[in-house]
């Protein structure tokens, strides 16, 4: 009896250890792919091409501004790519830099606003890096840039606290269309973000999820799109 109990106990320990190792390996794999998706060759090429354009048109101030923001964003992405958690302040900084760079390129095609409510303390609230940006990127490229007339786009990101959960609402007034094959990398970034959030759910027993829905006006005509990411709010992470 003692031998059987001991054997079963050791077997459970080995199985649990193997599961934890598999979870860790899966998370590392997803983080690597998230980093690759974030370092999107299209975005890097277009950003460098824009800097080159400003240099050629003698707009040295714009070229310097663009290059400084681009370098800062790359530094943040590389620094945080192997972390499970970063404080919200850093994540929002990276997101804002990305939005500034895209707005420099597309000018009047869209405007954006990032709002963080007073109940959210950025420097002590931790979130998984590389989760929010893929959805923002999708809102810009799949919807806002497809608006008729190429003007009037609005993107709003509201980060709030709902009881013990952090809520990130991404809302736009773009035109929702099927994605062209050449822009399939946007879907890949979103799939990786969702998979990473699910993996963290399992590891930390978090209550996190992502909901998406089409928005309609009073005449029941499509007028935009909304993505809401919710997760347990944590004031510290190991």
What are the SSEs and their pairings?
Blueprint: H1 2-38, H2 41-56, H3 60-80, E1 86-87, H4 88-106, E2 110-116, E3 126-127, H5 133-143, E4 153-162, E5 165-172, H6 184-204, E6 209-216, E7 222-232
Parallel strand pairs: 2-4
Antiparallel strand pairs: 1-3, 4-5, 5-7, 6-7
Along the chain, the helix and strand elements come as HHHEHEEHEEHEE
Uncertain regions spanning at least 5 consecutive residues: none
Strand content: 15-25%
Residue share in helix? 40-55%
**CATH C-level:** Alpha Beta
Radius of gyration: 21 Å
The largest β sheet comes out as: 5 strands, mixed
Strand order across the largest sheet: 2-4-5-7-6
Give the second-level CATH assignment, the architecture: 2-Layer Sandwich
What is the fold-level CATH name, i.e. the topology? Answer: Heat Shock Protein 90
What would CATH call the homologous superfamily? Histidine kinase-like ATPase, C-terminal domain
| Average pLDDT level | 80
Through-space gap between termini: 40 Å
Question: How many helices does DSSP assign?
Answer: 6
Structural class: alpha+beta
Secondary structure tally: strands = 7
Number of domains as seen in the coordinates:
1
InterPro entries: Bact_2-comp_sensor_kinase, Sig_transdc_His_kin_internal
GO molecular function: phosphorelay sensor kinase activity
Organism: Chitinophaga tropicalis
GO cellular component, one term: membrane
């Amino acid at each position: 009896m003692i031998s059987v109990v001991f054997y079963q106990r050791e077997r459970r320990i080995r199985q649990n250890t193997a599961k934890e190792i598999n979870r860790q390996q899966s998370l590392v794999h997803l983080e690597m792919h998230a980093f690759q998706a974030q370092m999107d060759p299209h975005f890097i090429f277009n950003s460098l091409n824009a800097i080159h354009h400003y240099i050629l048109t003698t707009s040295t101030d714009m070229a310097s501004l663009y290059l400084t923001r681009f370098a800062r964003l790359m530094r943040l992405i590389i620094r945080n790519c192997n972390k499970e958690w970063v404080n919200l302040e850093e994540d929002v900084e990276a997101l804002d830099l990305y939005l500034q760079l895209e707005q420099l390129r597309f000018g009047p095609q869209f405007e954006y606003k990032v709002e963080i409510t007073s109940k959210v303390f950025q420097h002590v609230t931790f979130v998984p890096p590389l989760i929010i940006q893929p959805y923002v990127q999708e809102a810009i490229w799949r919807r806002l840039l497809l608006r008729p007339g190429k003007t009037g786009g609005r993107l709003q990101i509201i980060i709030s606290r709902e009881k013990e959960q952090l809520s990130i609402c991404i809302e736009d007034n773009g035109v929702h269309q099927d994605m062209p094959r050449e822009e399939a990398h946007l879907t890949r970034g979103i799939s990786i973000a969702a998979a990473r959030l699910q993996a963290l759910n399992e590891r930390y027993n978090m209550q996190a999820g992502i909901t998406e829905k089409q928005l309609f006006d009073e005449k029941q005509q499509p007028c935009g799109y909304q993505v809401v990411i919710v997760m347990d709010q944590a004031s510290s992470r190991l």
